[in-house]
Structure formats: C-alpha cells, structure tokens
C-alpha cells in the first residue's frame, strides 16, 4: 500500500478539506504516514490569507523536493494558493506534479491517476457553479472514535473586504441544504462524535433553507450531540435571532469568534467593514446579556495602510474595553487583487518595523487579559469534554471547556466523557487540574489506536 502525507496550512476550513482528502485517498488504497520522508504522495494544502503562510509553503516545497528525488514521490499543492496561482505555480516550481483548488477535492483521485498514468502535470482550479457544487461530506466511519468533528455548511464569501483574498480563492457564497447538514451530524453522532463545529468562510450568513440560528438549534437537538460550535462569523450577521439561540439552547457552546479587525471607524471603512466600533459593541453587549460568561475571541489586523498611531491606540483601547478571551492578530500584508493592495501607495504603507512593534504591543496586552481570564478559573470546578491523552504528558488527559479553554488534567475518563475538573493552575493559554467527577460517559467506545492526522500549520504561524 502506498503512503501519503498532507501538510495543511491555514484555517479550520483547510483542516476540514485535508480530512476529506484523506478519506478520498484511503479509497485509493493509500495509508497515512506521520513522516513526509516515508511518503509516496505529498500534498500541501495551502493558505493565502497572509503572505507569511505562502512563504512557508514555498519553503516546505523546497524540503519535500528531496523526498521526491529520493523516493519518486508525487508532489501536489491544493488550497487557496493553488487557486490563486493556478498554472503559474507549475512554472514557479518545476518539480511540482499537480495543482488543484478547493472546489476540486472530489477530483483528487482523477488528478493523481493522470499524474501516475499519463505522466501529466495537472492543473484543476476551475470554480464549480453553485448549482453543481457538491459539499465535501465527512465519512462517518472514518470519524468513529473522534470526539469532535467539522461539518461544512457553506463556502465562499460575498463581502469583498479590501484586505481579503478569500472571494478570489474560495468564490461566492454557496450554502448547503440544511437536511444534508443534519443528516451528516446524525451520522457522526451515531459513531460517537459528541461535538460538531459548523464551518464556512462566513458561516452566519448561511442560507440553506433555514436561518443559521435555526440550523444551530436543530443541530443541538440531534441525539448524542453535547456541544455545537461554529466559525467564522461577520459582525453584520450577528442577528437578534442568533443571539436568542444562545440564550435558549445551552448546547450551543458559549464561545463566539467575532472578528473586529480594527478599533478605528475610519480604518474599518477603508477595510470595507460595514459597521462602526459602537455598532460592533452594541451587538456584543446584547450577546453577553443573553449568554453571561460567553467567551469572545477576535481577529485584528495591525498596520493597515494609512493607520496612524492614534488609530492603533484605538485598537488597544477596544481590546481593553471588550476584554477578549483571546485574539488572532497579524501585521497587514498586501494580497493580490485586493482593494487595499491596489491602493496601498495612495493610503500610505506602514513600515514593517512599525507594524511589528505595534503587533507586539497589542499581543502583550492580550496576553495579560487572557491570563486574567484563566487565573480567574483557578480554584473552580469546570466542565470538560475529554478529547484524549494530553499532548504534553501521555499520563494525563486533555479536553476543552464549553468556552473553548484547553484543559490538561489528571484523570482516567475515556475520550468522549464529560467530566468535572478542579482547576489548580493556569497559564494564559491553558488550565490544569484534577478530574473530580464523571458527568457523562462516552456514547461509543474510543478507538484503541489513534490514527495519524495531517500536519497542520495555522495561517498565523
């Protein structure tokens, strides 16, 4: 049997796409390997949301060239950089065998066959028409033994923010019909999945026959499902109906990732974000009133063209005002075909060293706030959904609270259990403690052997 290795960069959509690639490859009698050096097929599933992620992809391709030379491995690139660069990537990397976009995962077996049998260098990056698009569906049997799983409910984005390349690499918004979503969730629950995360580039703009709030409520009612999460959202889609869903359904996890991007109204307008800071805060305050204790995380871009020191200070002030549980913050990098890249010279580029200095100041503030949140948990008992052994100590267990805080703890509860953990220690990034009670046992016994998972590098790494 041939072995494959998938190196995934970027967001949870890319992680989900890599899982679907793995399922397609398993049907071709490929088996996963945790080491690229042993692979007969290497796929880089790429991200283009930040320039740094592209650079890391090219660096990884250089390393995998030696594997191709020594083993004759097939080397391919998928994801957003593939969609962005298309056949130019084959010219840039002469030892690359194939390139395929996010809409073409279903064609992966055909692409590999063409490379193997016809000795072609293949490019498959055409967008699939909305009427013909088939959403990748998690294979329930390959998810058996997992505690948490992604379920795709929509793809693409219609917002065209001036900094964002997603509309060019993922296309226009397409929503999946809600019966398909609920059937997939039910199949996953049937093999022991306890938590599902509904994903899409702009997930709360979902239009698959019911509203997104209704989809969340119906998903929470599927027998066996304990928690429902989702990502990623746009503030203008945080409706009163969605807020009400958080109030009435405790299985909707009390965690909301709500990207604000900046604390200046002027910069938000240049970013083509259709809200002001006060409008953002109004929606956020309604959400917190409906679900007290909800954890809020966000995305922030530092050093957007034209950003003054005073406007950066507004972002610092907003961070202090909201008190985010965590944030994913980045320095601005121009992306091809985006409005900000085309007008950067007119608006005023920010020197790189200034952007980095501002980012470090922002992240220092956020680390303090995150530490205050986690320290406030010390001495408390928290509910944890057990995901498996700790990655840091195989004798301990690992899981997450409903607020999505990670917990490493002493205990013996199997994966899929819901337990109470007494928190004894905390860092800004995680909690640690001891299991004191088992609230619910797993519905399906966990797999005795943990299968290798594709290597993932977040976009911000």
From TrEMBL:
One of its GO terms (molecular function) is metal ion binding. PROSITE patterns: MTTASE_N, MTTASE_RADICAL, RADICAL_SAM, TRAM. GO terms for cellular component: cytosol. [4Fe-4S] cluster 1 binds at residues 11, 47, 80. The keyword Iron applies. Binds 2 [4Fe-4S] clusters. One cluster is coordinated with 3 cysteines and an exchangeable S-adenosyl-L-methionine. Belongs to the methylthiotransferase family. MiaB subfamily. This is tRNA-2-methylthio-N(6)-dimethylallyladenosine synthase. It comes from Corallococcus aberystwythensis.
């Amino acid at each position: 049997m041939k072995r494959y290795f998938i190196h995934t960069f970027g967001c949870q959509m890319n992680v989900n796409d890599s899982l679907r690639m793995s399922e397609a490859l398993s049907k071709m009698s490929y088996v996963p390997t945790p080491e690229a050096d042993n692979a007969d097929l290497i796929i880089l599933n790429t991200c283009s949301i930040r320039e740094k992620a592209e650079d890391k992809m090219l660096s990884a391709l250089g390393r995998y060239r030696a594997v191709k030379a020594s083993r004759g491995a097939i080397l391919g690139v998928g994801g957003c950089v593939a969609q962005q660069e298309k056949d130019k990537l084959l010219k840039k990397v002469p030892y690359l065998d194939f390139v395929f976009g996010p809409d073409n995962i279903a064609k992966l077996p055909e692409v590999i066959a063409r490379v193997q049998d016809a000795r072609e260098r293949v490019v498959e990056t055409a967008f699939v028409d909305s009427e013909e698009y088939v959403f990748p569906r998690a294979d329930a049997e390959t998810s058996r033994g997992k505690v948490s799983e992604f379920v795709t409910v929509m793809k693409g984005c219609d917002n065209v923010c001036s900094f964002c390349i997603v509309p060019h690499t993922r296309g226009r918004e397409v929503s999946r019909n809600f019966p398909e979503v609920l059937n997939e969730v039910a199949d996953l629950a049937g093999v022991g999945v306890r938590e599902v995360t509904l994903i899409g580039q702009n997930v709360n703009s979902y239009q698959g026959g019911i509203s997104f709030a209704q989809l969340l409520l119906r998903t929470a009612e599927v027998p066996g499902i304990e928690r429902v999460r989702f990502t990623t959202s746009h503030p203008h889609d945080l409706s009163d109906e969605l807020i009400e869903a958080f109030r009435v359904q405790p299985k909707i996890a009390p965690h909301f990732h709500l990207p604000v991007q900046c604390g200046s109204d002027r910069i938000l307008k240049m970013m083509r974000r259709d809200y002001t800071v006060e409008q953002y805060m109004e929606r956020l305050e309604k959400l917190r009133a409906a679900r007290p204790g909800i954890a809020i995380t966000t995305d922030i871009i530092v050093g957007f063209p034209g950003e003054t020191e005073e406007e950066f200070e507004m972002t610092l002030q907003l961070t202090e005002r909201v008190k985010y549980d965590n944030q994913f913050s980045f320095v601005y990098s121009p992306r091809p075909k985006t409005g900000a890249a085309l007008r950067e010279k007119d608006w005023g580029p920010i020197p790189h060293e200034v952007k980095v200095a501002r980012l470090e100041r922002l992240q220092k503030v956020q680390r303090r706030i995150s530490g205050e949140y986690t320290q406030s948990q010390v001495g408390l008992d928290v509910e944890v959904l057990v995901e498996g052994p700790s990655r840091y100590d195989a004798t301990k267990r690992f899981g997450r609270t409903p607020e999505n805080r990670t917990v490493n703890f002493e205990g013996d509860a199997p994966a899929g259990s819901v337990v109470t953990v007494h928190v004894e220690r905390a860092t800004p990034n995680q909690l640690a403690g001891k299991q004191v009670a088992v609230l619910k046992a797993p519905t399906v016994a966990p797999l005795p052997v943990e299968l290798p998972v594709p290597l993932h590098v977040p976009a911000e790494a």
